[in-house]
Amino acid sequence: MLKLPTALQERQIYLTFHVSLLWPYQASNDTLFLDRVHPEPYNSGAPDDSEWFVNKLLRHCWDGRQLEFQVRWSLGDTIWEPSTSCKNLAALDRYLELQGIQRSAQLSQ
Fold first, then answer.
1. Low-confidence ranges of the chain (pLDDT < 70)
2. pTM to 2 decimals?
3. Residue among 67, 95, 72, 97 nearest 82 (CA)
4. Strand arrangement of the beta sheet that strand 54-63 belongs to
5. Do the beta carbons of residue 62 and residue 109 sit within 8 Å?
6. d(CA 66, CA 61)
7. Of 28, 48, 46, which is closest to residue 36 (Cα–Cα)?
8. Domain spanning 54-106, CATH class
9. C-alpha distance from residue 87 to each of 61, 67, 69, 104 (Å)
10. Rg of the chain's alpha carbons, rounded to an integer?
């Protein structure tokens, strides 16, 4: 059973694990990994039930046959999403208009 800070417990992290999933702790080797820092758990500060909206599409790329867009979300995160997740967005219409085309299939590879 883990003893976690209240903030992590509120994020519904499991406190109990089966023993087969646990590994012995090994301290970081400062000789091999100089100036290694351990990041703190990320907390966006937004409530878990808040809605995110797409601000805009920044760029596109083709991953083999699949088209992906780099999406800027309303809370500031930027991630790559498949075009199937972006097909009904006003941001996609704006992006295609800026590219001078009407369909996402016409985007350059």
1. 34-51
2. 0.54
3. 67
4. 54-63, 66-73, 78-82
5. yes
6. 8
7. 28
8. mainly beta
9. 15, 11, 10, 9
10. 21
